Amino acid sequence: MSISGYDVLKNPRLNKGTAFTQTEREALGLVGMLPPFVSTMDQQVSRALINVRKQPSDIDRYMYLSSLQKRNERLFYRLLVEHTQELMPLVYTPTVGQACEEFAANFRETAGFYVTIKDRGNIEQVLGNWPEQEVQLIVATDGERILGLGDLGANGMGIPIGKLALYCACAGVDPAHCMPIVLDVGTENEKYRSDPLYLGLRQPRVRGEEYDAFIEEFVEAVKVRFPNALLQFEDFATQNAVTLLERYRDRLLCFNDDIQGTASVAVAGLMASTHLTGQKLSEQKFLFLGAGSASTGIGALLVEALKREGLSEQQARDRLYYVNRAGLVTVDDYDTVGPHVQPFCKAMPPMTFEEAVRQIQPEVLIGASGTPGVFTREIVEFLAQTHDAPVIFALSNPTSKAECSAEDAYQWSDGRAVFASGSPFGVVHVNGEIKVPGQGNNAYIFPGLGLGALHGGLTRITDDMLLAAAETLAGSVTDREIEQGCLYPPLSDIRDVSLDIAVAVAECGEAAGLCVEPLPSDLKERIRNAMYQPYY
Fold first, then answer.
1. How far apart (Å, rounded) are the C-alpha atoms in residues 233 and 142?
2. Which residues contact 240 (CB under 8 A, 6 or more apart)?
């Protein structure tokens, strides 16, 4: 049944607001329901941008954009596509962290989908309540490890909503095919459980066999309801993240962005950094602060990259060192660390992080610890004394959790550091030069990866695909950008980069026999023509 009048204005996918033409207003019964002036979409974009910029804080800008998305979907995405550099930090990290913490207090209208432990035995039927039938992309979180903020429970819904917005804006995935999900199994956050405004289950987290059975039923329900969908696991605690990826990566088309996306974007940055260090990756030593799923995911993919440069697997692992809360991870820790960390245990004496830096003298220092300021002046200055161009990646999100700032890394190294971060930092002036810090934003990888998986008809996501994505991303950085110290292309180019990554990933899948049918010779043009364009 066709809809008209007020219902059209309340449907964000159909609504054009003041851009409805006079003919459309007459046909849809909108005459009198809108101001008489007919706006162009460009005028609407200008008006929306003015309203974003005049908001008093980033969280208010986030709320304005969220409201726009629920009111006029195409206008929201047009704004995000045309002003990605400015608006991505508002739509996702770092602002999404505060949005999640305040999710219950700021709740206005529902968005996304909630599957709770109370739905066990009925999950397939519950998924049938989602209004869209052609779901191709699902981002699901259980809210236990939201960014570097910890267990936010159902408040974590901002993460899958934000990730899917980036899929649409950065890679042209149709929002009609996207489904954000919170898997609510409770929370250990006592503040939320006792908060009268909290909207999730007010109980301790379900764990063990009951948790595993719940996730298993959810995955099987997805396979039945949405058999062609890519399922992305997002912001699970380390042990669950690693376990679920290993359990399901060969059973369905799935992906963990915290492990695999972070790995691919970090390795891409490391590949690009070789143009500044003058050393191959296989000639460098890498020290990781933090031994969670993100850092060990980077390590696992980096090992594959080093093997491509001629090292054996053991030789590659020998170049990677990990420090956790207890200090350098050694063979003495083998029985107390997870299986994802065990391959990197070293036959070395125990030592603190600072001692490890001085003993190992790594060319590359990578932080995924969630501990702000831990890359101190003394550490950065030491690395600058031992290496001409020390590589420092402070990857923890949001910005408040970064191991050091871009300005500190550049100033303490006399401008010689090769720096990248997880959240954005501004341009730094040092020694009369402009340094443009690269943001190792997963949005450079996961949208293109998903686009390639969907249009390539992939059945699995493999490490070779992640390396293909990393190589494509690294190859997209211009010489001029490299000279300014930036290891990633500007976000304004991200749709083109995502398209190139999609093609590389799909072709890698075809070579591995993981496409449901042969790829067309004009794959790139077909994907380009199929990308969602937010225009009326």
1. 9
2. 142, 144, 211
> DSSP strand E in 158-224: where?
178-184
Q: What is the pLDDT of residue 419?
A: 97
Active site residues: 92, 163
The Cα 103–Cα 45 span in angstroms is: 26
> To 5 degrees, how large is the angle CA 219–CA 502–CA 308?
95
Instruction: Please give the domain boundaries of the chain with CATH numbers for all domains.
Output: 6-71 (1.20.1370.30), 95-252 (3.40.50.10380), 259-536 (3.40.50.720)
Rounded percentage of the chain residues whose pLDDT exceeds 70? 100
Taking residue 449's Cβ as centre, other Cβ atoms within 10 Å add up to 31
Residue (of 328, 332, 383, 325) closest to 358 by Cα position: 383
Q: Mind listing the pLDDT tens digit for each residue in 220-271?
A: 999 999 999 999 999 999 999 999 999 999 999 999 999 999 999 999 999 9
State the pLDDT at residue 148: 81
DSSP tag of 335: T
Give, in degrees to the nearest 5, the angle at Cα 42 between 36 and 46: 90
How far is residue 396's CA from residue 289's CA, in Å, rounded to a whole number? 10
> Which pLDDT does position 190 carry in this prediction?
96
The residue type found at 401 is K
The residue ranges of DSSP E strands in 200-335, in sequence order, are: 230-233, 254-256, 286-289, 320-324, 327-328
The closest alpha carbon to 51, from 61, 43, 66, belongs to 61
* Paired tokens of 154: 């159902």
C-alpha 60/C-alpha 66 separation (Å) is: 10
Q: Which ranges in 456-493 belong to alpha helices (H)?
A: 463-475, 479-483
- Is the torsion defined by CA of 459, 493, 421, 160 positive or negative? negative
Distance CA 142, CA 261 (A): 18
- Tokens linked to 386: 């031992």
**Other beta carbons less than 10 A from residue 483's beta carbon:** 13
Is residue 205 within 8 Å of 185, Cβ to Cβ?
A: yes
CA 259 – CA 256 distance, rounded (Å): 6
Backbone angles phi, psi at 180, to 5 degrees: -85, 135
pLDDT in tens, 77-122: 999 999 999 999 999 988 999 999 999 999 998 899 999 999 999 9
SS3 track for 54-72: CCCCHHHHHHHHHHHHHHC
- In terms of Cβ atoms closer than 10 Å to its own Cβ (0-12, 13-18, 19+), residue 354 is middle
Neighbours of 28 (CB within 10 A): 20
